[in-house]
Specification:
Elements: H1 3-11, E1 22-23, H2 28-36, H3 42-47, H4 53-62, E2 66-67, H5 68-71
Parallel strand pairs: 1-2
């Protein structure tokens, strides 16, 4: 299983091989602190973004399987969709 199929199986109560270790991103202040402490470079702290190569390198270094936002973003819709209503104009 890959990370996406593993997470979807868990969310759908289906069989899976193991629980993934997932992160949801980093605070910029924390990345700056880690850079100041020498745990990562200033370039990594300044140029991190969800799903970019720096994110993947940090995930691997810290032992995470993946970043949730890189695999499942806000564009994922609910099924069934919730009906939209205008309450007031």
């Amino acid at each position: 299983m890959n990370n996406r199929t593993r997470a979807l199986a868990i969310l759908n109560y289906e069989p899976y091989d193991r629980l993934p270790i997932v992160h949801f991103g980093y605070w910029r202040e924390l990345l700056a602190q880690w850079a100041a402490e020498g745990h990562l470079t200033q370039e990594q702290a300044a140029n991190w973004a969800d799903g970019n190569p720096i994110d993947q390198a940090l995930s691997q270094r810290l032992g995470f399987d993946f970043n949730w936002g890189a695999n499942f973003n806000w564009k994922t819709r609910l099924f069934p969709p919730i009906e939209s209503k205008v309450i007031e104009k």
